[in-house]
Every structure is written in C-alpha cells, then in structure tokens.
Design a protein that fits this description.
The chain is built from 10 helices and 18 strands. By secondary structure, it is of the alpha/beta class. Bound molecules: zinc ion.
C-alpha cells in the first residue's frame, strides 16, 4: 500500500481543516481499548487476513473478462433510505417520501412478519424504488425451527411455509434487488444501479440453520456461493453507472463492539454480527476495479438493546472510502415536538433536534407525527452528505416538510488540492461526537492504483470537531 503521509497537499488540507496529520501511519491506528470512536483499520485488516489468508481477488470464480472498465462519472444522486419498517408504513408514508423529491428510495427490509398486505402498499409507492427483504419478511420460513413451530401450530402445512415469501417476491417483482440490480437515472442525468446483497439475512456466521431456506429459494448453498452471486451482480452493472449496494444486514469486518455499526448488542459478549458473504463480495469487486461508494442496510437497530445509548450508524472504510450506512432508526414513525412557527427571526426554516423524538403513541404532547427517512447524497461518485430527516405536517391540511433532522455525514472540504482528497465528518452516535476522516478522492468508478488512507489524529481531542 502506497504511503501518502508525506504529501504536501494532504498536509495543507489537514492544516486548513484544523487537524494534525500523523507522520507515521502506524501511529494512526485507533485502539479499541482506548478509543471507541474510530473504526479500527488494523482490526479490519487482521480479521480479513485471519479469515481468508489470501488476496480476496483470487478467491472467486468471476472471470476478469467480465469485470468492466471504470468510467468517469459525474452528477448528483439523492436517495431516501427507509430502514426497518416493523409495521410502521402508513397510508401517507408514500406522500411523505415524495415530499423529499429524491431520485430513488431504497427499502432495506423487515416490513413485518411476512406482511404481504404491507408489501402491497410498498409496491404501490410511485417514487422509483429498490427493495431488500429482511429476516422478519421470512419470519415463519427462514429457519427449520421457525418452520416447524409454525407447522406445529396448525397454521401451515408442508411447502405452504414458503407461501408468504413467494407472494412478497411476486408482488415486488423487479423492485426486489436481492442478488440482482436495478438501473435508475437521477434528475442530474447520472446513471446509477442499486444492487442487492443476500435477501432475508438475519446476520452472523451460522449457515446451518438457514441452509434449506437459501437452497430452496435461491439455489445458494453457502456463504461462498452467496458472495459470488453478490459480486457478479455488482460487476455486471454498466460501466458508467454508480453502484449502490443495498442489504438487509451490513457486512462483517466493521467491528466487534456492541455499538459498532453491525455489532451484536443483544448478547453480553457482543461480537461482529455482519454478513461475511457481503464483506467478501465487496472486497472482491474493489480488488477487481469496481468502486462502490455506498453500502446501505438496516437490521441492527440504532437504539442498543441494553442501556440508553445508540449505535454508530455510519462508517467510512479506511482503504476504499466506501461509506457504510445503517438506516435502522426504529421506530421510524414517532411523535416529535417542533417549533410553533415555521420560521425564526432570521427567516430560516426551523427544525427540531431529532434527539427530541419520542415513540409514536407516547403520552401527552401536542407533538406531530413524523416519519423518518435517511437521505444520502452521492456527488460525482462520492457520498458527500447523509442526514436522518423527520418529515411531518405542521398543519392539519398542510403538506409534508422536514420538521427535524440530524446530520450523519458532512463533507467539509472538497475541491482543495484539485480535489485529490476529501475530508468528511461522520457522527459517532455512541460517543456523541464527530470524527473527521480524510480519504483520497476517486475520480472514476474504479479503484485503479489509488490508495486511500484514513488520516485522523489518534488524539481524541483533535478528532472531535464538534459536539452537541
Ligand atoms: Zn432484521
């Protein structure tokens, strides 16, 4: 890996940004024991080596001839990502979504327990969309334990256990992107594709309990086969198309702590609950020259199982610059207190802090009902802004508007040094601080021979560029 630490451009950029660039990259590694803020890149690399032992590009059967050459990409793309719905998709949610004016919506699953009726309402949404189904969408079908329990209850017999899954897939048709892709064109003219990872994932490394389901539904016999299917779906997209990967559960390799983006918060010993097939697939497509700027998913909820703290919902890969975005803000419909007036003394529209939300159905206030969407902006193949927004009606007959928001990623400096580097701040929900990350900016969809580094000061005081 080429070292960029002596680069004057980077030093100048960091100086303007008010952060210090370490001259020895080996000192630039976060230790999970002393720092819960950053993604430990050494942990990432160590896990990968321990698991695979070889260059990921050598592990798959995808023919190099099938890998497409990178092309420059320009134009902006705005996406609304709908995290785990868990029954919270109502009559006016489609209108709330349309009010955002995005180029496409990405649903990352867990609508209900094989809730076919709710899926019909999602299928009727007019906003261009891509859907990934989650483990709750195969609630009675995914594992032998669940199937047997359902049959024993007398509610289903034999193959009928798969009926709910089949119906949902039929209703969604080409909108469901599991193991495949769907092409879109943004208002800017930019082409992009949303490619789905393994549908119905419940996370973790156990294949035995889901073996029959995936063989029956997708003819997939293990994580390796699944990784190949995902990688092939990405690399088969047109070369001038920005590829966004959607999954129900995120990839492994993003940390083993409770509050990491795919960390197992439901058990005391924590651990990495990410999907190993997705991690391998993403490594493969990057090594093969296809860059994925955004991987979005849900499943592991923002609110941690124990205590009152929240999960880190966004990460930037230290080597590739890929943004990983967990959109599982649950429940996604809440009562929220908003300012009485639409405008403040400066004439600016006022919004509430998204942290003032309480779950819908709560006691007492005159709060309005707000619907959560995670909005991501991808500009020239780079994720430049991510916000968690709450959309509601201030008046009884008013239209939807953003009534609260919380920024999750902001691009602070961009075109410095002819745009070779980009500094992005990401919100660390667990520690409630911002972390600044500088990566080498890509000018094409592919990786080429560029090397991206994570240049953040290991001293926490310098890493934090703002707190609430
Ligand atoms: Zn789930």
């Amino acid at each position: 890996m080429q070292c960029q630490l002596g680069c004057p451009q980077l030093k100048g950029l960091a100086s303007k940004a008010g952060i210090r660039v370490l001259l020895d990259r080996t000192r630039n590694l976060h230790s999970p024991k002393r720092c819960s803020v950053g993604l430990a890149q050494h942990l990432w690399a160590r896990q990968r080596e321990a698991r695979h032992g070889t260059n990921p590009s050598t592990r798959m059967n995808t023919s190099p001839a099938s890998l497409l050459q990178s092309q420059p990409v320009t134009g902006s793309i705005r996406l609304a990502i709908i995290g785990d719905v868990h029954s919270h998709w109502y009559e006016d949610d489609a209108e709330a979504l349309e009010s955002l004016g995005v180029d496409a919506a990405i649903f990352v699953g867990d609508f209900g327990e094989e809730a076919v009726g709710l899926i019909r309402r999602v299928a009727d949404v007019h906003t261009p969309k891509a859907v990934m189904l989650g483990n709750h969408d195969a609630w009675y079908s995914l594992t032998a334990w669940a199937r047997n329990k359902w049959i024993m209850s007398g509610a289903a017999k034999g193959d009928a256990v798969y009926e709910g899954v089949v119906k949902q897939l039929e209703i969604l048709g080409s909108d469901h992107v599991g193991y495949t892709g769907k092409a879109f064109r943004a208002k800017s003219g930019a082409h992009f594709s949303v490619v789905g990872a393994r549908p119905f994932s419940k996370g973790g490394r156990s294949w035995t309990d889901v073996e029959e389901f995936y063989r029956h539904t997708y003819q997939v016999d293990g994580f390796d086969t699944s990784a190949e299917r995902i990688a092939a779906a990405v690399t088969s997209q047109p070369p001038d198309s920005v590829v966004i990967v959607a999954a129900h559960n995120g990839p492994s390799g993003l940390g083993t702590l409770h509050h990491n983006i795919c960390g197992a918060d439901f058990r005391p010993k924590a651990g990495d609950h990410g999907d190993p097939d997705l991690e391998v697939a993403l490594e493969h497509v990057e090594a093969a020259g296809r860059h994925v700027p955004l991987v979005t998913f849900g499943h592991m909820h923002e609110k941690l199982c124990f205590g009152k703290k929240t999960r880190n919902m966004i990460e930037i890969h230290p080597d590739t610059g890929t943004v990983y975005l967990n959109a599982a803000f649950v429940p996604r419909v809440r009562h929220i207190k908003v300012p009485a007036s639409n405008t403040n003394s400066n004439g600016d529209s006022e919004t509430a802090s998204a942290d003032e939300t309480t779950p819908a159905g709560g006691q007492g206030s005159k709060a309005i009902t707000a619907h959560q969407f995670t909005v991501a902006e991808v500009t020239d193949g780079l994720v430049t802004k991510v916000s968690s927004v709450w959309v509601g009606r201030r008046g009884r007959k008013g239209g939807f508007e953003v009534v609260a928001r919380k920024e999750l990623l902001e691009t602070v400096l961009d075109q410095e040094g002819q745009g070779h580097y980009v500094r992005r701040n990401i919100w660390r929900g667990f520690d409630r601080v911002w972390e600044s990350v500088i990566t080498r900016r890509r000018t094409t969809l592919g990786t080429g021979d560029s090397t991206i580094g994570r240049y953040v000061d290991a001293e926490l005081g310098s890493v934090q560029v703002g707190t609430e």
